Amino acid sequence: MRAAPSDTGLLAPGWAGSPAAAATGDPAHLQALLDAEAALTRAQAALGLAPAEAATAVTGAADAGRFDVASIALRARAAGNPVIPLVADLTEAVGAECGPYVHRGATSQDIMDTAAMLVALRALEPVLADLGRAERALARLAVAHRDTVLAGRTLTQHAVPTTFGLKAAGWRSLVLDARERITAVRDALPAQLGGAAGTLAAFEAYGAGDPRALVAAFAREVGLREPALPWHTLRTPVADLAGALAFTAGALGKTAVDVLTLARTEIGEVAEGSGGGSSAMPHKANPVRATLVAAAARRAPQLAATLYGTLAAEDERPAGAWHAEWEPLRDLLRLVGGAARDAAELVENLRVNADTMREHLSLTHGLIVSERLSAFLAPVLGRARARALLSELAARAHTEGRSLAELLAEQPELTDVDLSEVTDPARYTGAAGPLTDRALERR
Predict the structure, then answer these.
(1) 42, 186, 235, 317: which is the annotated catalytic residue?
(2) Predicted confidence (pLDDT) per residue in 130-167, tens digit
(3) Active site residue 2
């Protein structure tokens, strides 16, 4: 049987086929490594530390399609990272004359860290685009359903009425929070260049009068921020990236778990625009998009925890700490990239069943407005009597299956009191409308 290609996402439908999958795959990582090597040679050439011909040769050769990624991966076991075999292959590809200018003065971690930041930069662009799609769709939902009343639920039970517009505005607020964090971390992603122990000594030895100028030139060439210091063991960039990604997964997960609850058969207040099928039950339309987003939200914190753990990196370059980042960072980028795509599709196609929402307001026989009635009746009957009466009628509403409004109307002490407005759930949504409006002012 022919061996299948690796890294296809067979067990990862959440990110398979997403832009994040393409941006984080082995070919993409290999290209980022090559881009870092080429940028280093160009930066040295710009400062007169390497001939222009070398910069041209290395840049021309730095095409991932020319290299055997599987061979590099296997040979990486000898040194613990793929840079060393890649440098050997790249040096051979550019020829004897320009070969000495490949990777000159750098250490493997310089290239690995820079490539990781490049991969993150490229993977975050589609994430931001999909967050923008989700934000716009949620804004439309919030506007369309500003006054659509549904039961607010606390601790899984009906509490007081709210509006679907306010719920959608809350989802959108989290998406905007995520977009701000992702944008900030993307704009701060730094290049890495420090040499063997973060002193830039090798570059000075090769003729750089002030090697800090080379760091600035390298950052410009590679398209990343110039770091204040080499960060071989100062892993703030990775930790910040992990935090932003984990937050984004959780923010999108909030929408997903709400949809999963509201889309239950016995609730049916929302539905995915095109649910997934079941292998055994033809009648089902499963909320697949919400399911995949919720799965990503559950996995992301553990991946981020691993990346936070690498902050404890010993000496000037550690053994094992930065190596432990590679896979969880890729997994986290993929998870969030897939979740952002799925969340955008989810909310763009979400079906809102406003009539069902309204019907469900009566499931507690009118008790959903008991808080309002308590406040309304206290000055009429006295606080103690109002509370006692509502407690009594609440029990009767359950046992007799009658509405609270009907039972209140039978009370002699309330015959002259108009309760029609205070017993209507649609008239007890507080400041839900204005709060939605205010949330939508945020851009």
Answers:
(1) 317
(2) 999 999 999 999 999 999 999 999 999 999 999 999 99
(3) no
